[in-house]
# Entry
Amino acid sequence: MAVLPIKVLGDAVLRQKAKRVSQVDGSIQRLVEDMIDTMRDVGGVGLAAPQVGVPLRVVVISIPEGEVITLINPEIVKRSGERRLTEGCLSVPGYWAEVTRSLSVTAKGRDLQGRQVRIKAEDDLLAQALEHELDHIDGVLYIDHLENLDELRKTVSEEEESAEL
# Structure
């Protein structure tokens, strides 16, 4: 297991539509383990394979007080409602913005054992993470949901925040 470098805005892999995984084998299991290690190391909620330079349709999501969800070849099968949320991204470090996401999201994909899974999330962090990470495997970043980049806000570090007080 290893912590992998995270690709940032400007890296071409983030804008590619990722390829489907044809077979869940040892290399995919190692990739998932490395993605989980990386996500935990940087304190992220989710991570998509393109964010670590691998153009495959694989995502991992870890929400507080929950287990890590692994989805291979995931797709959103249903979404409804709208809500405005604050969102940032490990691949767009130092910035955040308000984006519109669905209130309810249902996704399907395969787990590490190759079994079909279906996940439904409503009005919570998991619903937001599902849309955010599945966007990544289609080459979409949260900033693409903004009307213009003037909506981006710079993250204030704790040091800057205490200096401003």
User: Anything to note?
Assistant: The two ends are 42 Å apart (CA to CA). The mean pLDDT is 92.
